[in-house]
Each structure stands twice: as C-alpha cells, then as structure tokens.
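User: Can you predict the 3D structure for this chain?
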Amino acid sequence: MTIERRDFLKALAAGAVLGGDGLVRGALGTEAVRAHERRRSGQELDLDDLFDEAIVIDSLAVGHQWDAESYRAIERSGYTGIQTTLSSTNLEVAVQALAEWNRRIAENPERLVKATSAARIEEAKRTGRMAVIFGFQNATMVEDDVDNLDVLYDLGTRCIQLTYNSRNLLGDGCTERTQAGLSDFGVAVVERMNELGIVVDLSHCGVGTTADGIEVSRAPACFTHTMCEALYPDHPRAKTDEQIRAMADRGGVMGVAALGYFVGPDPGPGGETGLDDYLDQIDHAVNVAGIDHVGLCTDFQIRGIEPWATRETWYEPRLRSFKPSYNVRWPPWIPELDVPERFRNVTHGLADRGYRPAEIEKILGRNWLGYFREVLGA
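Assistant: Here is the predicted structure, written as structure tokens:
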C-alpha cells in the first residue's frame, strides 16, 4: 500500500466528508420538547416522558437498505444516535462506504448528524436529529498497513471491531478453533486506534483476542453488541462474566444485543423468546458489570427484521455462512423489539423490574455517551 494510493482513496470521498450540519430541528425533537415543557411546568414525568427526554443510543444498528422507510423508522424510534456498520472487505470498499455515508448525511442535514465526538451526539439530541457513528465489524480494511487507519479516521471512522468471527491479521474471531490472542500487528493497530481516538470493539473477538484487547488498549475497550454467556452457555458470541467484569473494570460499556437467537437458547416447540428474556440479559450484565457499564443495541435495522426478511433472504444465507455453534434460528426477532419503538418498550420493562429513572437513563444511552466522551473526545 503506497501513500499515493491512500491519497487517491481519500480523494475519492472528498466533497462528501464535511457534510451539512445546519442547526435545524428535526422530527425527533418534538416529543423531547414537550416532555421538557412538562418537566418545567412541574408536571410529573411518566415513563414515556423520561424516554423522550433521554439520550437513546443503539450501539450497533445495521445501516443496509437505507431508504425512505428508514427515515420513518428513525422518527418513531426516539433514537439519539447509532453506531452503524460499514463494509470492511478491503480499504477501497471501506472508503467507498464511508463516502456513501458522508454523502447521505450531507444530503439530509435536517435528519442526520455525523458523530465524531460526544458533543455531536448531544447536538443531535438538542436539534431533534440522529447522530451516526461510522464503524466496522472487522479490521480487514486496514489490510497490512497501520497508516490506513489515518485514512479511515479522516473520513469519519470512530469504531472498529478488531475481528469478525474468523481469524484476520490482528487476531482470532470467536468461532476460530485456536482462540489465539492479538498478533504483533494487532497490538500495533490497537495502539494507533488509541492515538487517533477510535473505539476498540471486541464483540466478535475470540477469548484470547478479547483478553489482549482489554489489556493492551490504553483507552477502555468495549463490547458494542453481545450477550451474557451465563444465560446462554457455550454460544461463541457470548461473553463470560470474567470478560464482562474485565471490560467494565477498565471503563468499557457492553451493549446487550436484541436478536432473539442471541438472547437465549432455543425454547423448543411452542416456546418463544420474548422481552423478559432480553431484560434478563440486561439484569445479569448490570449485576456483573455495574449499572454504569451496560447499554442497549439491536444488531439489526432500525425498522426491524420482520418487515423485509424471509427464510430465503435472511435465515438460509446465515446457515451457510455461520458455523453450527451460532445456533441461528427462524424467526430471529423478538416481537416487542422488532419495532422502531423497541427501546421505549425496554424502558417500561426496566421500570417494572424496579430500575430507577436515573438508572434507566444510563442504560438507554447515558453510559454510551460517557464512554464516547472518554474515547472519542468531548
């Protein structure tokens, strides 16, 4: 990889990088304003008011199939911000994906904010828009040159998962047989990510790479989308209590994924994975990591899965691409979470379990906001 090629790839995205960010109040701000007015007037806030005023962050929302329905789903969701996943096949493909997202934000300044810091997320809340953190679920686009991280950072990248399920040049993914730790190159990548201010995500990483990532990173590493192994034994994507505790002890945050086949084992014929199973995952994560280190995520589109997915387009490709240990099931969704208003439903569920308003606000997004402030900057 030469400097000339990197410069060319950066130029490919030129013009789309800065994007428009006029302080226009978007549709997401309406309910928050009303809730704030009720608070100022002395009226007691109910749970829906709490949700409307809260910072709400989905730490991994899939951004494929972006269209008019996506924007309607955003308005219904109450989201303040998301981390979205871009294609990481190689550097050129990654740059093209970044250019596309930069262009999308530039063309929709009344709806979207490019989030490169915590302040940008707070700005999105104030102006009724949704902040978007650019992220990748694999580091393959770094190729074999840590300097490529500078290219990705300059185009807006703020989160990189070190591996997907399989081994790459950095380390082993969660379904690899060997479960080795970080390579020398992986250590160098983490160090450069720390220098730049890019989140170190270990969600799909194997046991050794997860442990090394937590230990090597000077900034807190995180799990943007995972679940608790204690409630789903032997699933490769789940994190053990030891891993969760180590991540939290260094200041990281864990996003609890809302996919039905991640939340718990197959309930069997006639059984159904539901909202209570998801809340059980949150409860366990809070008990292990502490209330300041747990957040929410979907790991699917804001609109949900059922509106567009079929066995042929969703289930069967995953059966072919994932190892049997993934235990992919159909349907993959939890009905209460497969709607844009999912985290409003979670708010009510947490309250029913005795969580106080301030604790609910932390889980909804305050924890992620504080984490991003530390890693990305104020």
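Confidence is low (pLDDT under 50) at residues 15-24. Residues 95 and 269 are 45 Å apart (CA to CA).
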